[in-house]
Every structure is written in structure tokens, then in C-alpha cells.
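// run 5 | inverse folding | seed 20
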């Protein structure tokens, strides 16, 4: 017997008198999530030393979070809609705080990875609940635009704040405080949410596609684990252990697609990704994230381990990238209705690929001003416009009732692409570093056990950057040939009353694009 369709929401008619207080609460939660992403990047080298994390496993600090966040995001959005957005928002805050405390106290790398995975899981219900609360709290279009403006401004500024805050906390307190800082922020948000945020949810029965969420999440985890094992000494891509996990991951994802095609209320309606324009947008986003996430990981270690920069100085080195993204996104949003998404997105991805290729020329003695800064500026000024273009075409011609799913798929694609890209490029970097160290013996000062010579480590990063550049170039090719939408098509799409991409673009911007 078919399920009853959702008929309405339980929200009360008329503007919420405490809506601006509610926005403050949502803004605190959003700032916490953004700070967490950039703070942890800066803290990673110190955490690796403290917990004796190998170069092979260091990427799990990033991917444990992104895999669970991306894998459970679609399910989290549906849970928030039907279980109650305020209730889920508060649960997400408390869970995120608990996971952060667990990570801050973690005595071993395994417990840190577990805590990061839990952060991703609670983030997957917190993020869509926070965004949907803005939509239902602000019923006036002008007020809603202002609310999303605040939300978007925090998304852009929060990453930059996190880079500096991460450096300050790591340098003057401990890397652990980069996780502890989430606890008071979350508790303050909960205390303010209880009296100021109004509950709302969809009325009707629904099925939560838990099997679909588990199949996809474990499938990608298995793939990342297999890729990681390939870099472990004594194994390799063809080892039974690595190959076995890769095969299991692929099989789980095949079963996921088969299950989704027959589920009554699928986590991922396949019609969303079968469309040429939307499918091309998701694939381009995958290739973009694969190249970009790894870049942040490697440059963090390059700044602190190769050049010996302090955590604060390393954080400041990333600021031009943050500023470039904000400027480029603002310009791109103005150019989008004039030139259309395809040229804007394609050129932006080519610029991103060019910036990464330029960065691949670095050496252990390269200057920041001449070798790093130009690459950061070229990448960021290109990619900001890509985020705007992709977020619009990812929702092109999508049915109104599936616009939220389509937006979540785009964000999921970003997280999964970043996870797989980071794992693959970290494995490649480690292999290239080992090969370089064998052929170019180190004659400098004696290095601690497990620490690679600076020239070998930089060579490994450079090889990974070349592959990342190729990934973004593939994204540009896919976007140009598949996303055959011009500005006239976009105008017709908006004229017929379909949802615009402003809210979804802000949501994408909020999830880790530094």
C-alpha cells in the first residue's frame, strides 16, 4: 500500500516574532561547522606527531569526517523534515559537541578517527536542519534574503576565521583545543535554541532509507580503506588486502544503485542524476573536490613540516585563497545571468587546473610569494565562479519537490569526491616520496623516525598536485560537453517558478570550500 504523501508542515501562520533570535542561534551552529573544517586542517601536523599517526593514515582525519557527512547527508535531511527540524537541530548540536569532546580527549589515532566520523554523522543531520530552519522561519522573501545573506557571509568569513583561530589555539594551547572549542559553542546554541527556535516538520508518513544510507557509506569507506592500504609498506594496489576492500566497495555501491532503483522512497532518486545537465554538474563537482581537498591537506604539511612555519603563519598563508573564493563567487553570481553557466564553469575549472599545475612546480626551498601565492589566487578566482555555476545547473529542471534532494546530492558529491581524491592522492604522494627518497639519499640533518626528507616529501606533494590538476581538467571537459545550458535556458527555468539556486549555493559554500 503506498505511503501517504506529506501534506503540510506544522509551522504556524505569520512571521515568527523571535525569528531574528533564531537566526543568531543558526548562525552560531553554522560558524561552528565551518570553523571545525578549517581549524582541523591547521591542527593536523601537531595531531599527527602527538598521536604517532603515520603518513598513510593521516588522511583519515579528513576523510573519516567527509565520508560520514557525505554518506548520511541525504538521510539527515529527510530525518530533519519529518522528525522535527528544531529537535534534530538540537540533537545534532549535542552530538557534534560530544564527538568534538571525544576527539579532543582522544589518546589514540583510532579514537580520533572515530570521533571525526561521529562529527560527520551529527553534522549530516545538523547542516540540513539549520538550512531548512531558515526557510521555514523567514516567510517574507525580503527577510529570507537577508537571513541567507547573513548565513552566506558567515560561511565565507568562517573559514578564514577558522584558519587563524586554529593557528592560535594550536600554537598557544594545543591541537586538542581545535576540537574542544566546539563544545561551548554548541552548548550556547542549544541554550538559545530552546526558547527562540520554533518547531516545524512535514506532516505525513515516510520511510527512512537506512539500508541505502548504509550501503553507500560503507561502500565508500571500503574504497577509501582499500586505497589507503595500497600505500602501506608491504602491500600495494595488487595486494589481496587492498584489492579485496576495493572490490567490496565497488560491489556495495552496485548493490546501492540496484536497491535505490527499486526502493519505494529512495534516498537517491536515480532520475536526479540521470539528467544530462544535472549529472554533468555532479560529476564536475566530484572532480573539482577530488583535486581541491587534497591540496589543503598537502599544503598544510608543506607549510609546517617542510618550511617550519608556525600554525598561525600557516593559517595566514591560506587567507588569500579564502578571499579569492569570496570575491570570485560574488563576481560569478553577477556574471551568471549574462554569460550563462557553461563558459563560467568551464573557464573556472580550467583556472583551477592551471593553479594546481603551477603549484606542482614547488620545491622544498620555493618562495611563498612567487611559487604558492600566484597558484592560490589563480585557483580561488576560478573556483568561486564554478561553485555558483554548478549549484545552478545541478538544480536545472528538477521537480520542485525534489529540489532539496538535488541540492543535497551536489553536496554529497563534493564530500565523496573530496574523500576519494584525498585518499588516492595521499597514496600517490607517499609512493612518490618513497621512490624519490631512495633515488636521492638525504644528506642533511638527521630526521626523526618516520619523517620524510623535505625534498622527497615536496616531490610527493608535487606529483599529487599534477594529478589533482588533471582531475579538475576532466571536470572542465565534463562540464563543457554535458552541461549544455545557456543563460536563456536558465532565465526560462527561473521564470516558470522553479526554485532558484541561491539557497543551495549558500549551502554548498557552507560545507568546507575555504
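// decoded
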Amino acid at each position: 500500500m503506498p505511503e501517504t504523501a506529506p501534506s503540510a508542515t506544522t509551522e504556524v501562520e505569520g512571521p515568527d516574532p523571535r525569528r531574528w533570535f533564531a537566526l543568531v542561534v543558526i548562525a552560531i551552529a553554522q560558524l561552528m561547522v565551518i570553523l571545525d573544517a578549517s581549524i582541523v586542517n591547521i591542527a593536523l601536523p601537531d595531531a599527527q606527531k602527538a598521536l604517532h599517526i603515520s603518513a598513510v593514515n593521516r588522511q583519515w582525519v579528513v576523510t573519516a569526517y567527509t565520508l560520514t557527512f557525505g554518506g548520511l547527508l541525504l538521510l539527515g535531511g529527510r530525518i530533519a523534515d519529518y522528525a522535527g527540524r528544531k529537535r534534530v537541530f538540537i540533537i545534532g548540536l549535542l552530538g557534534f559537541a560530544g564527538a568534538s569532546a571525544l576527539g579532543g580527549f582522544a589518546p589514540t589515532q583510532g579514537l580520533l578517527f572515530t570521533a571525526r566520523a561521529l562529527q560527520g554523522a551529527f553534522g549530516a543531520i545538523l547542516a540540513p536542519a539549520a538550512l531548512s530552519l531558515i526557510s521555514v522561519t523567514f516567510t517574507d522573501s525580503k527577510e529570507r534574503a537577508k537571513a541567507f545573506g547573513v548565513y552566506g557571509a558567515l560561511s565565507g568569513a568562517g573559514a578564514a576565521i577558522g584558519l587563524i583561530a586554529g593557528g592560535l589555539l594550536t600554537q598557544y594551547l594545543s591541537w586538542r583545543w581545535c576540537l574542544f572549542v566546539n563544545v561551548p559553542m554548541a552548548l550556547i546554541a542549544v541554550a538559545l535554541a530552546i526558547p527562540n527556535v520554533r518547531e516545524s516538520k512535514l506532516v505525513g508518513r515516510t520511510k527512512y532509507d537506512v539500508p541505502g544510507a548504509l550501503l553507500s557509506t560503507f561502500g565508500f569507506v571500503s574504497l577509501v580503506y582499500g586505497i589507503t592500504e595500497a600505500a602501506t609498506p608491504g602491500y600495494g594496489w595488487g595486494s589481496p588486502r587492498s584489492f579485496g576492500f576495493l572490490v567490496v566497495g565497488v560491489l556495495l555501491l552496485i548493490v546501492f544503485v540496484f536497491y535505490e532503483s527499486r526502493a519505494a522512497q529512495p534516498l537517491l532518486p536515480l532520475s536526479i542524476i540521470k539528467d544530462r545537465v544535472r549529472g554533468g554538474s555532479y560529476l564536475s563537482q566530484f572532480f573539482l573536490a577530488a583535486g581541491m581537498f587534497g591540496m589543503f591537506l598537502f599544503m598544510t604539511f608543506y607549510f609546517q613540516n617542510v618550511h617550519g612555519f608556525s600554525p598561525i603563519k600557516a593559517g595566514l598563508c591560506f587567507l588569500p585563497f579564502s578571499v579569492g573564493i569570496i570575491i570570485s563567487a560574488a563576481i560569478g553570481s553577477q556574471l551568471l545571468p549574462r554569460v550563462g553557466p557553461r563558459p563560467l564553469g568551464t573557464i573556472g575549472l580550467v583556472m583551477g587546473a592551471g593553479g594546481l599545475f603551477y603549484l606542482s612546480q614547488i620545491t622544498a626551498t620555493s618562495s611563498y610569494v612567487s611559487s604558492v601565492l600566484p597558484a592560490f589566487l589563480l585557483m580561488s578566482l576560478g573556483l568561486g565562479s564554478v561553485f555558483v555555476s554548478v549549484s545552478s545547473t545541478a538544480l536545472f529542471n528538477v521537480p520542485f519537490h525534489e529540489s532539496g534532494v538535488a541540492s543535497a546530492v551536489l553536496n554529497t558529491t563534493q564530500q565523496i569526491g573530496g574523500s576519494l581524491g584525498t585518499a588516492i592522492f595521499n597514496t600517490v604522494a607517499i609512493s612518490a616520496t618513497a621512490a624519490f627518497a631512495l633515488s636521492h639519499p638525504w644528506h642533511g640533518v638527521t630526521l626523526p623516525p618516520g619523517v620524510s626528507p623535505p625534498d622527497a616529501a615536496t616531490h610527493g606533494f608535487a606529483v599529487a598536485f599534477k594529478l589533482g590538476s588533471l582531475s579538475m581538467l576532466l571536470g572542465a571537459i565534463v562540464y563543457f560537453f554535458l552541461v549544455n545550458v545557456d543563460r536563456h535556458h536558465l532565465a526560462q527555468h527561473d521564470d516558470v517558478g522553479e526554485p532558484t539556486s541561491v539557497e543551495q549555493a549558500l549551502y554548498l559554500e557552507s560545507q568546507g570550500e575555504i
